[in-house]
């Protein structure tokens, strides 16, 4: 049988290590043994297939999921999902979740003393289109404190979960906002060693997708692993 | 273009990810041996991880993945999706009911023993952990190239064990970090 074309591995510095000194929760939640390098097999180059049956209309607009509009600054978050050679990743599922405008999550474990918004859940889903494009309408999340260290605050962010075409391409990340002064002090953002890679997690203000009189636009492009065209020689 | 950096799911992952919870992969028209897999996700302190999530991906009973990229001429069961996702509970426990997958092709004409590929996510984990679960019957393990990459003394962490003598009732724990608790760290793969 022919060998299988492989998904390329991320360049050094572009991904965080499991253990991060300043992000305290990693200390007991990171493996001590080195990972074992695995040549990808059929199990890693295939992956679950999601389609329009897995989402509902309205899932991509987090501002219209309740009786009234949520409080906060309405924004459009859009971008393109592609591989590392700029090929679009079409029809892939994106799941997002976030805090409300006051920096509070609709979650029983969130003890932050900020108000919940009865008109905001903070959950969205969509599929990319044939060109890898996606678009959400939401509100800008607030910053919030956490217990990692004294006076620790998370910069405003939106969580993104993506599958891509294979088990090997699964990615969970966070999107940040330009000019946020908290980024310099955030161990999670800073966990990515390479400065340019880190900065790619910051969305760009996006005039083209700003909706006049309605919402400011932010652009966040996401790059998944790409696959070699031909199998490795063994 | 460099790949986008990974970030943790954080403690509130359930808000965004609960919509796809699926811990029963059985469906009408799906053949094969039903198995229930129970386990705990444990951290380096031996504590169950209450804010984690486990995802699984597997072939059907015939060894065919429900993905058009697997174009081999084997029976495809339209109701079998091969994907499972479950959050851990307050004790760090998870459970899946599924079908034992068939054997799969491996490198250089080899055959991979039946297995399920697994992703683990949690607060405090900045990028997903990838591992595999194999079945306790041991069939095909000696010629499985992935198991052979793993030092012999660590292989047991990838193999579920039978509970109460019932081969449909399996236990498989995911130990994120070795520690004073004495459990062996699960083998994780750089895929």
Describe the structure.
- The complex is a heterodimer of chains A (234) and B (191).
- Chain A has 234 residues and is mainly beta.
- Helix content of chain A is 6%, strand content 24%.
- Chain A has 3 helices and 12 strands, in the order E-H-E-E-E-E-E-E-E-E-H-H-E-E-E.
- In chain A, the strands form 3 sheets. In chain A, strands 2, 5, 10, 11 and 12 form a 5-stranded mixed beta sheet that branches. In chain A, strands 4-3-8-9 form a 4-stranded antiparallel beta sheet, with no helix packed on it. A two-stranded antiparallel ribbon of chain A has the order 6-7.
- The N and C termini of chain A lie close together (12 Å).
- The model of chain A has no long low-confidence stretch (mean pLDDT 96).
- Chain B is mainly beta.
- In chain B, 5% of the residues lie in helices and 30% in strands.
- In chain B, strand 5 and strand 6 form a beta hairpin.
- The longest helix of chain B is centred in the C-terminal third of the chain and has 5 residues.
- At the A-B interface, strand 1, helix 1, strand 3, strand 4 and strand 9 of A face helix 1, strand 5, strand 7, strand 8 and strand 12 of B.
Main sheet summary of chain B: 5 strands, mixed
CATH architecture of chain B: Sandwich
Shape estimate of chain A: globular
CATH fold type of chain B:
Protocatechuate 3,4-Dioxygenase, subunit A
Choose one word for the global shape of chain B: globular
Query: How many helical stretches of chain B?
Result: 2
What does the average pLDDT of chain A come to? 96
The H-level CATH homologous superfamily of chain A, spelled out, is Aromatic compound dioxygenase
| CATH-defined topology of chain A | Protocatechuate 3,4-Dioxygenase, subunit A
The sequence of SSEs of chain B as H and E is: HEEEEEEEEHEEEE
